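hey team, just a heads up i'm posting the complex here instead of the shared drive bc the drive is being weird again. everything in one block, sequence lines first with there labels, then the predicted structure for the whole assembly after. its two chains so it's a bit long, scroll down
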Amino acid sequence: MKIHEYQAKDILSRYAIPIQPGKVATTPQEAEQIAREFGAPVVIKAQVYVGGRGKAGGIQFGDTPEQAREAASRVLGMTIKGLTVQKVLVVPKLEIKEEYYLGIVLDRKSQAPVAMVSAAGGVDIEEVAAKTPEKIVRQVIDLRWGLPPFEARRMLSEAGVPSVVVAKGGAILSALARAFIETDAQLAEINPLALTADGQVLAADAKILIDDNALVRQKEYAAWAEPEDANPIEYEAHAAGLASYVKLEGGNVGIIANGAGLAMTTLDMVARAGGKPANFFDFGGGAKAEMMKKALLFLARDPDVQGILVNIFGGITRGEEVARGVILAQGELPRKLPIVVRLSGTGEAEGRAMLADAGLTWGQDMQDAAQKIVAAIKGAQ
Amino acid sequence: MSILLDQSSKVIVQGITGREGQFHTKNMLAAGTAVVGGVTPGKGGTEVEGVPVFDTMAEAKKATGANASCIFVPGLGAPDAIMEAADAGIRLVVCITEGIPVLEMARAMTFVKEKQVRLIGPNCPGLCTPGVGKIGIIPYGIFREGHVGFISRSGTLTYEVVSLLTAAGIGQSTCVGIGGDPIIGTTFADCLNLFEHDERTHAVVMCGEIGGSDEEDAAEYIKQMSKPVVGFISGRTAPPGKRMGHAGAIVSGNTGTAQGKVAALQAAKVPVADTIFDIPGLLKQVAGKKI
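-- predicted structure starts here --
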């Protein structure tokens, strides 16, 4: 789960990590008021769930409260990578002398979190990793004792930062590791960690990603979710119990399959047949007709969808249930849409017979079904 | 012989009294697997499908001499169940459970590695050796005894491809679903190593997917293998940053793309099937009469 910068900083401050003071505004007037309270030039930072907001104009400056209001009115409502900015973080402008990178990330290869430090902060760490990997100091974290301060200081020292940053940053990195572990994060970054002209070391920007599987035990953070901002159609799908639904931009073939691997393979097959998948959706195992109907009617609501492919390899999902769900949905579709069904396994023959009686198209196998739905959409255009 | 599961395997089902546990215990017994006991804390002394239920793994191990376990315990209980099995001296642990918080799994892995236990999964369909039995939820009827080892990260895709092989007259030695989570006990490279040293296996099919770098690591291992391998990668159309069902199936930046995995396999001289329908043909090309 993604959270905003101001929320990530809130978590950091609970671990005694010094952060730049700041307040959230949802209107230009609020931003002006906050700037007045700070009594100093401010930075207006868009709070959106995507990277690259600086380049998109989502970070602007205001030397006076009036300028802060104007800057906020430019940023609020702006669209960055398809997301509308609804909140800005207002922070006093810092006199930054140097910037560093501190991060903890779950490393699949080590099967553990890995801490990373770089003296080159404020830039995309993936770029640093690709171009100059030697500039990143890495350390695998043992979950039994976390990242002790001495280890954190050694990393900073090896990265070649000034001694004031080794001292203060060591405590910060060690605390960041604790925050990472206790919040069930998959990524926790301070980028940049700033050394200011007056010798302060603090988090000027922060990013935390929380493991979706851990939200059941991270209830406070789970309540911070704003999925309706991130993607309205996915939010609705998840609320309707279609948990794995992912919207794919620019597609026109709705897809329902059971199992994540089979669903991905179905997407690839549709693309090979010349179509464009409009979504990923794993229907799961053992589902009943009502659920199939619900899923089909949901996909049909997406105006991008011009046809739907159902690909089910039956084990505990029965072919008759799938067929019955498709037939039920067909009678309630809000508009005419071609549907092609491919069934295999348990109840295959019965399901096919039901589809044939209802005049629905079925595919011999996944490839045949993908070609049929792509052809049907082209024919309807 | 076969890998992981053989005639000497005796299995305990952890979470045996739940709906899934009961249903699949029945299926495992029907497939010929020696399910010798089950564990559900608080249900000790009862029976499921004629199999005795114990409160703890330690008791179950002592009473039955089991050497393998299959876990259906949901969510946060699963990593605890994995550690309990490892602590009781079980050598092979198969964890079917989906949705385990990844850091909890990382902790359990530390424990599993110290106990030198073979863990399959989590978030996997389990494994099957046709003619011997199965541990997990893979439908037994789709198999045919033979000489092709099969490894995949996914469930239904495994069933689909195994069915294609069986229909093409190509039998299987052992089939392993290693799981779709970011942290899993046994990787593709681990399985390839087991198949390389298995007399019954003459060729291997590996079905990978986007996310992580297990397929790339496997490609490195394949360079030193004597047996032929055929590859397939799903998720070619998946956009970066979107989780495709499996917690581990996500392209992050430039890491974990289908294109990168296909290229790594091809660099190891592994033929990569464009669609799953090409897999039987490619197998016949690389393994000929050996399968």
